[in-house]
Amino acid sequence: MADTTNKEFSHFDADGNAIMVDVSKKSETERVATASGKITLSQEAYDLVKSGSMAKGDVLGVARIAGIMAAKKVDGLIPLCHPLAVTKINVDFAYDDEKRQIEIEAIVGITGRTGVEMEALTAVSIAALTIYDMCKAVDKAMVISDICLEKKTGGKSGTFIRPE
Question: What's the pTM value of the predicted model, to 2 decimals?
């Protein structure tokens, strides 16, 4: 686990103004981030997604592409994020029949000077929102939840693994 003592916010200068962190002096290292989240659906919407019968088409296929596209555009969405040439983006899904949930996982990788946590979190968020959009005609009460960083490796701060 990385040391978290004496940490300061890096996106502010000495006067408290927002800044983009200068990463030009950092070493390029392999960095990977894994994020996850969930969307809970009504039984009807869940069954339609799982069977591939939703009127708008292949919900998870479209959500996968949306998550990948979103991870590549984080610098246009979050003001102080660096534009990154990510080298790996995987967005996957798992069904939890008991809870009527679709679990979403995104893994993003790069060899670079800054991490890809925001890219992985954004991929999960946009994949979940895409599922919501494609299913809202059947279920407007869906709940998107538990979006979090699961793991990150590389960089000065080392490895982070979410505690159980």
Answer: 0.90
Helix count and strand count (H, E) for the chain: 4, 5
Cα–Cα distance for residue pair 142/45, rounded to 1 Å? 9
| CA dihedral sign of residues 61, 144, 100, 57 | negative
Helical axes 59-71 vs 117-135, angle rounded to 10°: 150
Neighbours of 67 (CB within 10 A): 31
Architecture of domain 29-154: 2-Layer Sandwich (3.30)
Q: What is the pLDDT of residues 13-65, one digit of tens each?
A: 778 888 888 888 888 999 999 999 999 999 999 999 999 999 989 999 999 99
At 82-92, the pLDDT tens digits run 999 999 999 99
Beta partners for residue 101, in sequence order? 40, 96
Catalytic site residues? Answer: 133
Domain ranges of the chain: 29-154
